[in-house]
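Late entry, written up from scratch paper. The run itself happened at the end of the previous shift, but nothing got recorded in the book at the time, so transcribing now.
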Amino acid sequence: MRIYYGGISNETNAFSPIPCSAVDFIETDFGHGADARRSLFGPLLDRGAEIVVGPNLIAQPAGPITTASWIELREALLADLEARQPFDAVLLNLHGAMATPDIEDCEADLLARVRERIGAGSFLGAVLDPHCHLSDAMVELADALVCYKEYPHTDIAESTHALAALCARQLDGGRRASAAMYDCKQLDLYHTTREPMRAFVSRLRELETAGVALSISIAHGFPWGDSTSIGTKVLVYTDAAQDNGAALAATLGNELRALRGKCTPPLTSIDALLAAARATQGLIVAADLADNPGGGAPGDSTYVLSRLLATPPGPCAIGALWDPVATAFAFKAGLGATLPLRIGGKCSALSGAPVDLVAEVIGLRRDLRQTAPGYGGISVPTGDVAGLRVGDVEIALCSERTQTFSPEVFAAAGIALATRRLVVVKSTQHFHAGFGALAEQIFYIDAPGTLGFDFSALPYRRAPNDLWLRGATP
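Output as recorded:
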């Protein structure tokens, strides 16, 4: 039994000012090493399968990838697959919301071409980010699709293991699982770290464990994409003999419809955040969610930074701001140096104005790779990191655009979070896995940025007209 594993993963923000091309993709370390393979492919390894790892590429979320770059990456993976055939199954690590200016559904494009090469008799499956545009074509082309259940996505390995189990079941002689998809006709955010989604996701697992379904996935949809398939959907796989998948998908989908607008905390103004920080002795962690590089934003907006510098609420920190020029200047000046810098506010009008300051360099680290807590040991390139101090405000800069997953970023910048009253992170929700245990309170900041959180105000061109959008009346 031979199994091919590879992928091309990117989340396309149709409104991002950041261009994307083939040079932005790097090989991940996911799927390498005996322990990693056991956690991902255990059900197949138990059957003596040989796992052949091909290209497994990922790039930071950005604007649409150029069509030529997509074709280059796609053809490289297909050539590798063809050169190493035959395979009993192909498992792909995809995102589900990748697009070019000419190809709306890159994942369906890839699945179709893989299916052409391996034939109808081989298993074809993929693991998807829940912020995918789950299309009819994707469901039809694949034998099984499994979305991560958690947001933040701390169950990537578990989801891949679940796909491997579905693959093993079919290769053992079982019939292809029966797929049923329900379109909730809405676009919202669903934090699984809080109720009501915490209980909802736990119930999905209970239904799977009880054998009510082979697999249940919730595709949240990616609000800052623009696709005819955008929106929240429920995907249920059952044994063909059960004949209950469509009813179960509809039941769960209607439960999600009843939760519209209830699955994320309210946003907090910068003024209210500063007031809370002054009144609290424990650490507050606040997400500058509209400037999250993990959603395609630059990570260089200065709205919150400017207010911290103007009226600091006490010892505070912010990071990591993407500014390779200021980071390089800090390295040239050296640890302990004081120098004038202009930071942030470079990538678009939504980045705000650059901030001029005189700062002390308090930390320097070359080539940091953040460990994303709970993500199966994935390390995230962050580039060079520099720490700056301006009075009570400490700032982490990075030379590679990425969201802040881990307190490692601040440690690398010479910033001790134990001494801070407030830490602002450039992230939407993935920070929660690394910072949640440190925080007495967590806030989500209402500030300008590339990721507008009133979805009803986004200039969609392809999205269906009958979607309920976050920001509209439920």
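The chain has a mean pLDDT of 96.
(Scratch paper discarded after transcription.)
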